[in-house]
Amino acid sequence: MGTNWDTLRPILLDAIGQTLWMVTATMVAGGFLGLLLGIALYSTRPGGILANRPVHTVLNVVVNIVRPIPFIIFITAIGPVTIAVVGTQLGTGAATFALIAAATFGISRIVEQNLVTIDPGVIEAARAMGASPWRIITTLLVPEALGPLILGYTFVFVAVVDMSAVAGAIGGGGLGDFAIVYGYQRFDWAVTAVAVVIIIVLVQVAQFAGNRLARRVLRR
Amino acid sequence: MSPIIEFRGAGKTFGDVTALAGVDLSIDAGEIYAVIGHSGAGKSTLVRLINALERATSGEVLVDGVDITKLPERRLREVRLGIGMVFQQFNLMRSRTVFGNVAYPLKIAGWAKADRERRVAELLRFVGIAEKAWQYPDQLSGGQKQRVGIARALATNPKILLADESTSALDPETTGEVLRLLKRVNSEFGVTIVVITHEMEVVREIADRVAVLKDGKVIEHGTVREVFASPQEPTTRKFVETVLRARPGSADLARIRQRHPGRLVIARISDDRRIGTVLSEATSRYDVRFEVVHGGVKELGSTSFGSLTLELTGADAAVDKLIADLRTTTDVEELA
């Protein structure tokens, strides 16, 4: 059985477009929300610039509950919320919403971990200069941790590509779905291989760009 | 002169731990005031009460006449704009250049861009690192980093500068340079400087007055001359001896005793306590020979301070007489 690339090509292009859309939207929206949540986790910890034990405990527990749920289960379990927000629990939009939600919690931990490495003395110096907590967050925390943050986001990018392959479970399409439906289920290894190669290229390009950017920021 | 900083029964506890208790100190405008103590004595906490990085849990801390322990956080930020701070580990932002680090407090204070640029250039010239403006802290030596730290602390023209162990991470030569720079800050701009240190040498080099902190309490304070001339507390005496080498340590003493079997006495030296005249007559009048076996003399401001350990050899009664004679001019202590 030969592979009919003429019919598959438009489907493959659609799948690539869906993956790129899902990953990009997740990195932008989830990246931003994860940054906010990570900063909140970091700032409210005991001894932090906005130390607040109740808030910190609540955030911590919520993140710890959501993060370990396998994405294949999360994407279906979040269904009611997806319907409320997106209007449907099927399709690329619904899958993207689930991806953004999951990524937000995952990224928040990575952001928190990177912020913890900032020398507390530098933050104390800023406080001694009369900087407000908000100013410290915007002009000190993020710039000081930018290099490691870029590497952290690059790591997340790969994880998001991985998660996006599950989108097919709720009709979200994408390269993962393409590989399973047109490759695995039709015993057509060539199709699977093509999908795999495209994903590998996508990940390589992202990792390369992330490494370069981080090196520039870190001046090493 | 009116005090610019005043502690009135100030205390600080962290949970069950008392870091400071009942501190009463007043620091005059324009002076360099040192606070010395061993690690854990509460020095760092004390200095942080002045800009309320730590809030006193009891008593009052007055800065420019205002009790800052009662101020809300927002008002404190205004107070902090008038107080610069220099740190042991410099605490510079790695992501910003030297210029960016020094400009940072000016941004917080809301200075316009052109004013910031002019001020930063002026500050970098003053601390002597104008050519490093576009380098990053990682590329600087410890001494250069501390110069950036000082420039940054002075940016907003503060009246008070807090130096928390500002030379403890530096080698002796660089320490001297940084201390001279702090002295210039004081003499040229009239900035009141509070120096926190565990090194008596630092106190000797730049301070006008000193307070000794032990277990969260001020155990002694006074002008540096007074404290060096007649330290009252054992802790203070030990600090003074680190500079003056007044008393041989037990290992030194054992070595000295091996070679010098005579009686050993320690005589304190200062400009108005001269032992030369008495000693020059030791042989002719008492038939007692003397040997200098330990000691040192240091400059302190415009006067000299120190002490010498002498070996006195002769008849016991004669040595007693010589010691009595020495005691008429200075303090003499016989080592058992």
CATH class of the largest domain in chain B reads Alpha Beta
Q: How is the CATH topology of chain A named?
A: MetI-like fold
Helix and strand sequence of chain B: EEEHEEHEHHHEHEHEEHHHEHHEEHE
CATH fold type of the largest domain in chain B:
Rossmann fold
Measured by DSSP, the beta-strand proportion of chain B falls in: 25-35%
Q: In one word, what is the shape of chain B?
A: elongated
- Total domains of chain A: 1
Beta strands of chain B, count: 14
* Number of alpha- plus pi-helical segments of chain B: 13
Which outline of chain A best applies?
A: elongated
Number of domains of chain B: 2
**Uncertain segments of chain B of ≥5 residues (pLDDT<50)?**
none
Q: What topology, given as strand order, has the largest sheet of chain B?
A: 6-7-8-3-9-10
Strand content of chain A: under 5%
